Amino acid sequence: MLGNVAGPLEEIAVLGMRITDLVENSTRDVAADITVDATGYRSVPRTSLSGAQAINRVFADGDLADVYRTVRRLDPEKAADDDLTDHYRYGAFTGYFWTHLHHTDAIDVGGGVRMAPDRVKPREVVEEMIAQRPSIGSEKLRGGGGTVLVGRSPHTLAASGFLAVGDAAGQVIPTTGCGVGGALVGAMLAAETAAAAIKLHDVSLGALWSYNRKWFTGPGRGDHFAALAGLKEILQSLTHAELAFLMRKDILSGKMLTPSINGIFEEPDLGATLKTLLRGFTRPGLLMQLNKATTMGKRIFRHYREYPQKWDPAAFNAWKQKARALFKALSA
Q: What angle in degrees, to the nearest 10, is found between the helix axes of 284-305 and 222-235?
């Protein structure tokens, strides 16, 4: 990138990009008022801001998942005997697996696990699930696999003359890796911010800060995604036996999980809390883990709702340090 891109956040001034045409074997500088990084989870422009840790975090390890899904033709007559329903099993194999009925004659089966050397292969798990269901045929309508982002956003998505959107900005649902909705919202907010800044001939960090504020506190989804990232870290540590107990006792129910699948963090109400206590009293250690998950989720959500309204180095650093402490406490 062009400009001052090696200093701390307050000194960064992106002035455009240096672009190499591999076909023509030529390089040229392209000046721009605002450079937008939409390069995916590898996010080369954002991560090249080497002196600004608040923005240059590289997505790796637990931020990434190995995913496989397939949409198959379904035999409606056999489906009833297979007892097929929309099902989402979060935490299985340190990941998530699902069956989703698209239509009466089509079903989506898939799953993802966090990237690790000893991880299971999601394709093998999915194919085993399919083999146990005679109603799911061999005809593949669509699908595929690969690496997807399931990490949270860096602490800022803006610098002077620079914005990040989509996977490059961590605008994905961390419990599923779904990124289209978050990317569209992020792109809309970035476009609004960029248009207003250019109209005022001011593309400084202060002028672009409203993008951060909108993403992390609304109408963006950063606060919800951050809380779900915290919730995920604890739930993925549960064993198969613990997950089975929670499902069997209807503690982890569809009512609880559906919002998280859609990227929404909902604080449990009094009724849900009492139900959890009554149905799970025989497993006090497990209840403590669930309580930690929901408590940390609430703390993270509320902290992100307090994202600084304006660019102020002292206020931002204080907010950033608390955010880091909250996520560090998840593994304590």
A: 160
User: Which domains are delineated in the chain?
Assistant: 2-59+151-217 (3.50.50.60), 62-149 (3.30.9.10)
pLDDT in tens, 211-245: 999 999 989 999 999 999 988 887 777 766 776 66
Q: Which strands make up the sheet holding 106-114, listed edge to edge? A: 87-90, 95-103, 106-114, 64-74, 136-149
Structural tokens at position 235: 């739930």
State whether residue 107 is helix, strand or coil.
strand
What's the length of the chain?
Answer: 332
State the alpha helices, DSSP H only, in 249-312.
Answer: 254-261, 270-279, 284-305
CA atoms within 13 A on the CB side of 215: 36
* Distance from C-alpha of 332 to C-alpha of 328, rounded to nearest angstrom: 7
pLDDT, position 105: 92
pTM exceeding the 0.90 threshold for the entire prediction: no
Angstrom distance (rounded) from CA 250 to CA 242: 12
Beta bridge partners of 36: 163
Residue carrying structure tokens 């915290």: 230
What phi and psi values does residue 239 have, to the nearest 5 degrees?
A: -85, 170
Identify which of 103, 96, 100, 97 has the alpha carbon closest to the alpha carbon of residue 86. Answer: 100
How many CA within 13 A on the CB side of residue 190?
Answer: 24
Query: Could you say which residues of the chain have pLDDT below 70?
Result: 239-240, 243-257, 268-282
Strand partners, 149: 64
